[in-house]
Design brief:
alpha/beta; 3-stranded antiparallel sheet; 8-stranded mixed sheet; globular; 13 helices
Length: about 325
């Protein structure tokens, strides 16, 4: 009887010790967030860095036009839509910047901004953290993807490029009406008090679902959050992107690190008048000519959503694809 009790006690102690020897994710890798303000040629670029304590990789993220850093850390159902949270849970640090003119970054004269100027500023941000992380990935959304490719091609200081919601063939039939529906920031009820000049543009109130989310589900909470956090872009930023043959295409062809391209069912960059997004393989065939072989281009399509795929209720499937891709980078 005593021998059985002793055996049970020993087994219980062994199980307890084993449980204590396996740290929980929170104990193993606590995430800390901090605001960074990096001096750049046109002022200061702000970024929000959230890093697990043991992170070796950081993804530097550039939002698209009329978005700011909040696009990468959506506060509405973040367990579904926060790219930042998904990366942190995978042990990867995320640094989302506010493009110049947006968020907490400096607001220079809009005429001074271009996709290239923004890329130069992001380069300074990367240099400020390069010693902290052995592996640095640059990523972008929409026009932010153009900036990411320009930065990677010009400075060769990153280990990979994540391109989302952008291809090298734009459907001008859908893009031009979106641009035409923009209004100068000083005339916008939400952003007019910022003191920005009229060269900064934003979406007219109540138009973001049509511009960025269709054909995805019209989730009132998601669209309300998007409207409440909307920002601006300088008209001169768009020139570099729309004029693909003079800026973006030469840049993408000079990228010498792996590239992962992700799009949804995006009416602005997919379809008969744009890129073939009928399958990941078709997308890769459509986009591969714009990249050098060294880019080892990989592609993924998130079905069921439009241009702003971080807002998709199934965004987690693409987050997981990015995480898997990061693991393949040497």
């Amino acid at each position: 009887m005593l021998r059985q009790v002793f055996r049970r006690l020993c087994a219980a102690l062994l199980l307890t010790a084993a449980a204590l020897s396996v740290p929980t994710p929170a104990q193993a890798d606590t995430v800390t967030c901090q605001d960074l303000y990096v001096p750049v040629p046109l002022g200061t670029m702000h970024g929000r860095l959230c890093a697990p304590s043991q992170a070796k990789t950081v993804v530097v993220l550039i939002p698209g036009g009329t978005y700011n850093a909040s696009y990468w850390d959506i506060g509405y159902t973040p367990e579904l839509r926060s790219f930042r949270l998904a990366m942190n849970q995978a042990g990867v640090a995320a640094l989302a910047v506010d493009r110049l003119g947006t968020g907490s970054s400096s607001k220079p004269l809009s005429a001074l901004l271009s996709a290239t100027a923004q890329a130069n500023a992001v380069h300074q941000v990367i240099q400020s953290i390069r010693a902290r992380f052995p592996k640095v990935i640059i990523g972008g959304h929409s026009i932010g993807s153009a900036m990411a490719m320009i930065e990677a091609a010009k400075f060769h200081d990153v280990d990979g490029v994540l391109v989302t919601d952008m291809t090298h063939r734009m459907n001008y039939i859908t893009v031009i009406p979106v641009l035409a529906n923009m209004i100068p920031a000083p005339l916008d009820p939400q952003l007019g008090s910022r003191g920005l000049d009229a060269g900064y543009l934003t979406t007219s109130p109540g138009t973001r679902y049509t511009a960025f989310h269709t054909p995805g589900p019209n989730d009132p909470g998601a669209i309300a959050y998007d409207e409440s956090t909307k920002d601006v872009f300088a008209a001169t930023e768009a020139v570099d992107t729309i004029a693909m043959t003079t800026v973006v295409i030469p840049a993408s062809q000079q990228i010498t690190v792996p590239v992962f391209l992700v799009v949804g069912n995006d009416p602005h960059f997919c379809g008969p008048l744009a890129s073939d997004c009928s399958s990941p393989e078709a997308l890769r065939a459509s986009e591969a000519p714009f990249f050098a072989p060294a880019a080892r281009l990989q592609t993924y399509i998130l079905n069921g959503y439009g241009h702003a795929i971080n807002y998709a209720p199934n965004a987690g499937t693409y987050f997981a694809q990015v995480t898997n891709w990061l693991k393949t980078l040497s």
